[in-house]
Amino acid sequence: MNTVITIGRQFGSAGREIGEKVAAHFGIKCFNKELLTRAAKESGFCEEMIQNHDERPTNSFLYNLVMDTYSFGYNASSFVDMPISHKVFLAQFDTIKKIADEGPCVIVGRCADYALNEYSNCVHLFIYGDLDTKVRRIMKRYDLTESKAKDMIVKKDKQRQSYYNYYSSKKWGRADSYDLCINSSVLGVDGTVKLIVQFVEDFENKN
């Protein structure tokens, strides 16, 4: 097993749970919130700050400057002037690459597919679901009314979408941004895991 699996996901689609089960099947690590802890350690930011900016968009004309800075190596002065949200993003970006360099794993969310764009041993997946299924799952998990659960789903997905579209050159949730998009409502969690395992094994055999 040599593959790094990245999973983008709609809120309530069970993407995290699916990622954990796929990782358990292959006996590899799954990074979700753990990635934040590690990014905090390696970058010197406090974990709370990294969590505050986690998968949240920001609006700033400095965006291009940041990407230039990232492409051409850190330039001390522009890094100092950079908004904190960008620094946090870059810290996560670096951590994602380090994690992928260490060997096969599953990374959930956080633009990991974009961070690892140049890596040929990656499979990039997106998990989505039917609204009804997602609402039921969120109602149960957070003990919410139906309308509260719906609001939460819309808000979280909007955040993830803005974050992804802002920091990456691709479109969140659009089929051509990924290798495989799966509606987890159709097969359920275990069926989706089975499908991903098959896909990854075929990918490994082909490469």
List the keywords.
10 helices; Rossmann fold; 12% strand; 207 residues; alpha/beta
| Fourth-level CATH superfamily | P-loop containing nucleotide triphosphate hydrolases
How many domains make up the 3D coordinates?
1
By secondary-structure content and strand pairing, the structural class works out as: alpha/beta
- Residues in helix, %: 55-70%
The count of β-strands is 5
| CATH topology category name | Rossmann fold
Largest sheet: 5 strands, parallel
Question: Can you tell me the residue ranges where pLDDT is under 50 for at least 5 consecutive residues?
Answer: 60-65, 67-75
Straight-line N-to-C gap = 11 Å
| Rg from Cα | 17 Å
CATH class group: Alpha Beta
Number of helices: 10
CATH architecture classification: 3-Layer(aba) Sandwich
What is the averaged pLDDT score? 87
The fraction of residues in strands falls at 5-15%
